[in-house]
Amino acid sequence: MKTAAAVLHEIERPMPYADSRPMVIEELDLDGPGEGEVLVEMKGAGLCHSDLSVINGSRPRPMPMVLGHEASGIVREVGTGVRGLKPDDHVIFTFIPSCDHCRYCKEGKPSLCEPGAEANNAGVLMNGAQRFSNKGRSYFHHCGVSGYSQYTIALPGSLVKIDSTLPFEYATLFGCAVMTGTGAAMNTANIRPHQTVAVFGLGGVGLAALMGAKACNAGQIIAVDLLNSKLEMAKKLGATHTVNAKESNPIEVIKDLTHGGVDIAIESAGNSTVLAQAYESTMRGGTTIAIGLPHPDHKLSIPAVTLSAMEKTITGSYQGSCVPTRDIPKFIDMYHAGQLPVDQLLTDTISLEDINTGFDRLHKGEVARQVILF
Ligand SMILES: NC(=O)c1ccc[n+]([C@@H]2O[C@H](COP(=O)([O-])OP(=O)(O)OC[C@H]3O[C@@H](n4cnc5c(N)ncnc54)[C@H](O)[C@@H]3O)[C@@H](O)[C@H]2O)c1
Ligand SMILES: [Zn+2]
Ligand SMILES: [Zn+2]
């Protein structure tokens, strides 16, 4: 079949993308669904900084690629051998495919799935397939999702069935921003009531982490960003204090507010210098959660002795340490119960044609999440 998709052929085009147009809308051929594969009609696809990082060269991937990894849609056809999904099911995509049988999947850590990570790095589905092509040339998949396409082929291990009443513009956000941010707060950090929390970087992911901290009944929640508009959003979502890191030193302000540092600092700016600041802002025995995905060459610099002498912890969080089949339904229930105002993360809905301008806006930090509606 044919599908219109936004394709990235070349990284590191100059900004603004509205002029250099790194993403090109093309009509592609889409094969399948083969055995064990699922054809999904895309309904919503979000613009996340991890897509922007592929476009600007911070997250090297093979080209040409159909980007997009935060998405939701409707199952249209299933290949032979697919169980648990059928046409008309509404689904949210996870961005790390899980195989169900590697040592990580077996230990209940599907976000670390080994074949899933290998497939994502190679830009193929976990069964090795590439289903997009144009004039016989194969195109790469992004994270087993490729959300910026009217239709896609995915594996069941990338899909979570949801109730059909949830509007797609909100359903989409659970696939990355909410799983990543809220999952980091609730799963990775496992924030306990009254603990003090700082969140550095208030995009869709950081704001979802802040919501998670609030849902865990954290005590002080200190939100840090360079933009006052983001600090205002954070206040509405439950931040008790805000710091503009352009105007004051966030480490000093946080230590002052908390009499020595926070229990938990979450880094969601995607910058190793900010990760070091987050670490410095934790108290003795405090924990730093790294969500951001800086360029692979960037190193973290911290005073090593403080790890031992202050019993500090740094831990990574990928896809919010979620088990998607467990956590997506849980987070949707919390949304319906008013505990996670996920709808507040949505700044705008846009069309596929506006994708380059959308990434300009994300780069400037003007928006939390924009969702392409198909
Ligand atoms: N670990 C995961 O599973 C996972 C999943 C999705 C996204 N990510 C990563 O998380 C990060 C955030 O993603 P997003 O989509 O929310 O990004 P975003 O661009 O929407 O938000 C980033 C925010 O950080 C702020 N910021 C930039 N520099 C800062 C500084 N020096 N101090 C404080 N704030 C600063 C920006 O103003 C912006 O508000 C990215 O690195 C992304 O790649 C990780
Ligand atoms: Zn993402
Ligand atoms: Zn696995």
Figure out the total of helices: 12
CATH class of the largest domain equals: Alpha Beta
CATH architecture of the largest domain: Alpha-Beta Complex
Portion in helices: 25-40%
User: For the residues shown, what is the average pLDDT?
Assistant: 98
Number of domains: 2
Q: How would the global form be characterised?
A: globular
What profile does the largest beta sheet have?
A: 7 strands, mixed
How large is the radius of gyration? 20 Å
Q: What name does CATH use for the topology of the largest domain?
A: Quinone Oxidoreductase, Chain A, domain 1
Overview of this protein structure:
With 374 residues, the chain is an alpha/beta fold. It folds into 2 domains: 2-177 and 321-373, Quinone Oxidoreductase, Chain A, domain 1 (Alpha-Beta Complex); 190-316, 3-Layer(aba) Sandwich (Rossmann fold). The protein contains 12 helices and 18 strands. Strands 3, 5, 6, 9, 10, 17 and 18 form a 7-stranded mixed sheet that branches. The chain has a 6-stranded parallel sheet with strand order 13-12-11-14-15-16, sandwiched between helices. A 5-stranded mixed barrel has the order 1-2-7-8-4. α12 (355-364) links the parallel β17 and β18. α5 crosses α6 (204-215) and α5 crosses α11 (324-336). The two termini are 17 Å apart. The model has no long low-confidence stretch (mean pLDDT 98). Bound molecules: nicotinamide-adenine-dinucleotide (NAD) and zinc ion (2 copies). Residues 98-99, 102, 104-105, 113-116 line the site of one zinc ion (ZN).
